[in-house]
Design goal:
The protein is an alpha/beta fold. The chain has 11 helices and 9 strands. Strands 4-3-2-5-6-9-7 form a 7-stranded mixed β-sheet, sandwiched between helices. A two-stranded antiparallel ribbon has the order 1-8. α8 crosses α11. It starts with 16 loop residues before the first strand and ends with a helix.
């Protein structure tokens, strides 16, 4: 592949290539680059963001499933060539590269797998102190929203249990090729200093997901499948709907349920 060859965006991969240099640089500058030596960019395409990451005092790796993009990156970014991982991020064991070391994640994520990328990040939170990325705007807003908001939900609670989430800025469709049909939003996640939860984490995930499946109902009704005792269900927290509970209240609710189940 020649150096000036342009990679064609592939619809089945959900590719929309960012072509605005100033926005690419702005995204690269969202990370602090402190507390880790490695950064992993997901879905670099033709490297518009990559080039700014390579200027940072860190070791940049990229993971890309599109073989055409991989060939382009290896031809155009020779100092990156041996750190181009041609794999599916969702299926690949990242410790084959990082060997349990900490690393940050960054990228202009394909909309169709963005929430799966987030959930894999949550699974690997011990190694990922920072995460910056571009999502569909409404998904980014949902992740960062607080209790009481109409868009507050599963993604908000489970992300904010471990990370401080900040919505940074909106990106319009016209800076992409091809342009998506909606606005994009860039967010930043910084892992909390104490991100070990005072409850059973697997049970928290189950409580949050079950509660929000019927978000208009009170928790007394939406959590019926847990077969909780009448004494616990009399607690006033069960009068609330899931969207009214702050993250800390979900953790406390999980503790109550855990104690009830074990009695």
């Amino acid at each position: 592949m020649s150096k000036d060859h342009q990679v064609k965006a592939k619809k089945y991969l959900g590719q929309h290539f960012l072509n605005d240099e100033s926005i690419a640089e702005k995204i690269a500058n969202t990370l602090s680059f402190k507390g880790y030596k490695h950064v992993l960019e997901i879905g670099p395409g033709m490297g518009v963001l990559t080039k700014y990451l390579l200027k940072k005092d860190t070791i940049t790796h990229v993971i890309e499933i599109d073989s055409e993009s991989v060939a382009y990156l290896k031809n155009n970014y020779l100092n990156l060539a041996d750190r181009v991982i041609e794999q599916d991020f969702l299926k690949y064991d990242l410790n084959l590269v990082f060997n349990n070391q900490p690393f940050a994640i960054i990228g202009n994520f394909p909309y169709n797998i963005s929430t799966q990328i987030l959930f894999k990040t949550l699974e690997m939170r011990d190694q990922i102190p920072e995460f910056s990325g571009m999502f569909q705007k409404e998904v980014a807003q949902r992740i960062c929203s607080k209790e009481g908001s109409k868009v507050y939900g599963i993604l908000s609670v489970l992300t904010q249990a471990f990370y401080d989430a900040e919505y940074l800025f909106t990106v319009p469709p016209n800076v992409f090729n091809p342009p998506p049909k909606v606005d994009s939003g860039v967010l930043l996640l910084k892992r909390k200093e104490n991100y070990t939860l005072a409850c059973n984490e697997a049970l928290l995930f189950k409580v949050v997901k079950t509660g929000f499946q019927q978000r208009r109902k009170t928790l007394r009704n939406s959590l019926k499948s847990f077969n909780l005792s009448d004494i616990l269900k009399a607690n006033s927290i069960f009068d609330k709907r899931p969207e009214q509970l702050a993250v800390q209240e979900f953790i406390e609710l999980t503790q109550l349920i855990e104690n009830d189940i074990n009695e």
